[in-house]
Amino acid sequence: MPGCKALPDPVGPAAMPAQSSQQVPVQQAPARQVLPERLTAASGCGNQSAVHKINKSGQAMGRKGLESRERLLGATRRLIESQPGARLTASAIAREAGLASQTFYLYFKDVDDVILVLCERASANAEGLAHMLEGNWRDEEILDKCQAFVTAFYQHWYENRSVLTYRNFRSDAGDPRFIDLRHNSAMPMVRLLAHKLSGRDPVHGEAPGDEPLARSVIFFAAMERLAGRPDHALASDEHRFPRERLIATQAGMLAQLISAAINGH
Question: HSE on the CB side for 157, CA within 13 Å?
């Protein structure tokens, strides 16, 4: 879709906030996720015998190699969470993982390479969110469906905020690799939301129309921006906006828009 490769950010480029200290109670999204093939063995999912895992030296990785790779991924995630906005280095990641610096380059080309893997995993975990928007919704269940979707979306951001914020930060800066990751994660949800806002479900790949798609992009961008902000950024001297209130308000707004579209108002 022209103009929507990088989703608009109504508040400005993504900052690098620290992780929230309070978890939002959620209704879980459907446990249906598909990891990219090159991540399957490393995550312990799928048939590892069918996935050929090799390191950057072209050597097949056994259990110890996969464990070392996972330690580097975990160390990178911890550093992003504890030092938001800081410049990461391969040596710092290896040191955090308790490995020699040269070990890093057995598994990753550079720091961006390891961060891209983390971003791919976080994006893959969002697949269940899109499935929540599928199917026909009866009038009496629209609000509950919207509440479940928005709640699960906020929980996804709570669990992956540091990585997703970094992805969006690099996407806003114009890096095509991170733009593609963000686009591929978001657009299934954006398109399904657009069909809901058009008042009809997709049929054989039918496009939802420009106006519903524009509304969907705007709503999604606002939801993503609010879900990605830490709790302290949602308060001022006069007002506090608990996440539960934001979730309920956004779910109510989405339900009103969908109901109006379905009923032709």
Answer: 23
